[in-house]
């Protein structure tokens, strides 16, 4: 397989229409604000100082990411695996972030790009209690671009219409990690689910 050169791309893909270019907005408008307010899930992408890229799932109640202004988002950080790849990238790397927001039942997605910084300001964290706990930190995002993606990818995947896979067809994450590393316990899915309920 040979790599494509930049000049090859123009022979494969036609130029985007002016409308596609124009829909990349420099701020969170009323439509983007409404979409974010309905979203219980997004993916956060960051880049490290070594050029590595990380993408991390983030979730909460709908609207868990707060629109603090037309160019400001605020995202609480909840309990996770403590690798903090995303936050290390933000602190040590360029600070640039991209998010893609999903709303169950809507095929379109919203991409938001900007620059992030972290805060542990007590008053702010106290204002963002969810699942009975304050966040461990808060990510501020200075928004530079907001862009609605068409629904083709989710339509192709039938993401919202596809039947759910039975959880039992895949080993639990505890069993997977134990098989991969030999570390930890081979927890069943039921045990993990009960533990997760206390750690949200």
Describe this structure in words.
The mean pLDDT is 93. The chain is globular, with a radius of gyration of 19 Å. It folds into two domains: 153 residues, Pnp Oxidase, Chain A; 38 residues, no CATH class. The chain has a seven-stranded antiparallel beta sheet, with helices on one face. 29% of the residues lie in helices and 28% in strands. InterPro entries: Pyridox_Oxase_FMN-dep, Pyridox_Oxase_N, Split_barrel_FMN-bd. This is Pyridoxamine 5'-phosphate oxidase N-terminal domain-containing protein.
In short:
This is Pyridoxamine 5'-phosphate oxidase N-terminal domain-containing protein. The protein is an alpha+beta fold and about 200 residues long. The protein has helices at about 5-10, 20, 30-40, 85-90, 120-125, 150-155, 175-180, 190-195, and strands at about 40-45, 55-60, 65-70, 70-75, 95-100, 110-120, 135-150.
Low-confidence stretches: none
The assigned structural class equals: alpha+beta
Whole-number radius of gyration? 19 Å
User: What would you say the CATH architecture of the largest domain is?
Assistant: Roll
Q: Overall 3D geometry?
A: globular
Q: Order of strands in the sheet with the most strands? A: 2-1-5-6-7-4-3
Instruction: Please state the oligomeric state of the protein chains shown.
Output: single chain
- What is the fold named in CATH at topology level of the largest domain? Pnp Oxidase, Chain A
The CATH class of the largest domain is identified as: Mainly Beta
Mean pLDDT, all residues: 93
Number of helical segments with 4 or more residues: 8
CATH superfamily of the largest domain: Electron Transport, Fmn-binding Protein, Chain A
Count of spatially separate domains: 2
Query: What is the makeup of the main sheet?
Result: 7 strands, antiparallel
Tell me the distance between the termini: 45 Å
**Share in helix:** 25-40%
User: What is the strand tally?
Assistant: 7
Report the order of strands and helices.
HHHEEEEHEEHEHHH
Strand content: 25-35%
């Amino acid at each position: 397989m040979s790599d494509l050169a930049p000049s090859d791309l123009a022979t494969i893909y036609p130029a985007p229409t002016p409308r596609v270019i124009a829909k990349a907005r420099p701020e969170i408008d009323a439509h983007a604000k409404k979409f974010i307010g309905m979203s219980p899930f997004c993916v956060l992408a960051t880049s490290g100082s070594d050029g590595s890229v990380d993408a991390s799932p983030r979730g909460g109640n709908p609207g868990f990411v707060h629109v603090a202004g037309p160019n400001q988002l605020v995202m609480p950080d909840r309990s996770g695996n403590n690798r903090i790849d995303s936050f290390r990238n933000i602190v040590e790397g360029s600070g640039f972030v991209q998010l893609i927001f999903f709303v169950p039942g809507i095929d379109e997605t919203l991409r938001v790009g900007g620059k992030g910084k972290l805060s542990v300001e007590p008053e702010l964290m106290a204002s963002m209690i969810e699942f009975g706990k304050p966040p461990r930190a808060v990510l501020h995002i200075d928004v530079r671009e907001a862009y609605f993606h068409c629904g083709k990818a989710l339509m192709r995947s039938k993401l919202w219409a596809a039947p759910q896979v039975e959880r039992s067809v895949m080993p639990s994450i505890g069993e997977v990690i134990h098989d991969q590393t030999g570390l930890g316990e081979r927890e069943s899915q039921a045990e993990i689910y009960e533990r997760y309920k206390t750690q949200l």
